[in-house]
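This part of the workshop introduces the protein records we will be handling. An example says more than a description, so a record of this kind follows.
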Amino acid sequence: MYNSKIIGLGKYLPEHVVTNDDLSQMMDTNDEWIQERTGIKERRWIKEGTDDTSAVMGAKASRMAIDRAGLTKDDIDFIVFATMTPDYYFPGCGVQIQDMLDMKNIGAIDIRNQCSGFVYAISVADQFIKTGMYKNILVVGSEYHSNGLDKSTRGRGVTVIFGDGAGACVLSREEDTTKGILSTHLHSEGKYADKLIVEAPSIKHWVPEIMESKEDLSYFPYMDGTFVFKHAVVRFSEVIIEGLMKNGLQKEDIDMLIPHQANLRIAQFIQKKFGLSNDQVFNNIMKYGNTTAASVIIALTEAWEQGKINEGDNVVLAAFGSGFTWGSVIIKW
């Protein structure tokens, strides 16, 4: 048996910054209203006319991660790509990464677990490495939300939250089983799928039906924000504790918690509940908004870049989102 270890991290954010004041020009909202409810000050949106997509951004983050790992594209054995905003209905973005990076004909799979996407993706990659099937796996989280949001007052409750961006890491075989990813913990509760959903287009509600009705807005995201918040704070706590207990750790042993960047209020609630200092929790939702499957890996990359994560640290990743799905990853850095 092996462990898997993160040996390279990368990220990419579009250059175009959209502030809360910018959004107030599109809809009935303001900076105070948005910050009070979400903690978000600005986000990155892909600017019209640029070439960025979920796959393109993922490729840019991947090149950085591979380079920082001290590897080449030919060293990568497999690709796991997490997104809820793929370039196409099918195929998925994983095969596009293989092509864009001019890789060998390695396998690629896509993970569709929305805000929990990266946590699920790294768990899948971890199992492939622990069984000895692969040595180096590229794990990507990338999202292009801005082109699919309702940018009117009607959609402001959702639209102000989301941003575009990508992150990637290289997961590699580690023979010392006291290091690297110690455990991952995944859960779901599908009965609440309709609380955070994009209903269409789907096979049971296809494009012609949507186009025939001017009142059909099922292709825009819907969220029952209060319901999601209440469940998120409970599930975040449960799955973090589950991971700590599995590894004989206490909450005091957490050196860095990287929560999914869904809402700053959720992260602050968890921080207070676990008695963690500001130095033990990393948040960047203020700058980027919620980038769903990209949020954890972007935040992890930034925390590492800023020297907030060091060798030997106990690092906890946790996420909750649509599905509902949630999970945690316990890492000895």
